[in-house]
Amino acid sequence: MGGLCKNGQVEKAYDSLGEMEEKGCPPNVVSFNTLISYFSQINETAKVVELLQKMAKKELFLDTITCSVILELLKLGDETCQELLSLIPMFPA
């Protein structure tokens, strides 16, 4: 997944999440963090929000990498900031 992202194929890497599920290998926090990091680098905050929502539904925990990306995006101050903040309580404690 990281290799796809590094080669500019972030959407293909994103699609691989579904493929992983179909093949019985559900993505973990590392898989999500890889995509979240790359989507944040290309300012695709809507995709970051979508991925965070998927993580919450799967009851995956936020880790330091996820939190760092969220904090970096919050510094941008765009319209997705409020949405990002609203997602945090959805995660397991």
From TrEMBL:
Repeat listed as a keyword: yes
Gene3D superfamilies: Tetratricopeptide repeat domain
GO MF annotation list: mRNA binding
Coiled-coil ranges (or none): none
InterPro entries: Mito_RNA-Proc/Resp, PPR_rpt, TPR-like_helical_dom_sf
Pfam families (UniProt xref): PPR, PPR_2
PPR repeats: 1-27, 28-62
Keywords carried by this UniProt record: Repeat
PANTHER family membership: PENTATRICOPEPTIDE REPEAT-CONTAINING PROTEIN 1, MITOCHONDRIAL, PROTON GRADIENT REGULATION3-LIKE PROTEIN
Similarity remark: Belongs to the PPR family. P subfamily.
Protein name listed in UniProt: Pentatricopeptide repeat-containing protein
Source species of the chain: Rubroshorea leprosula
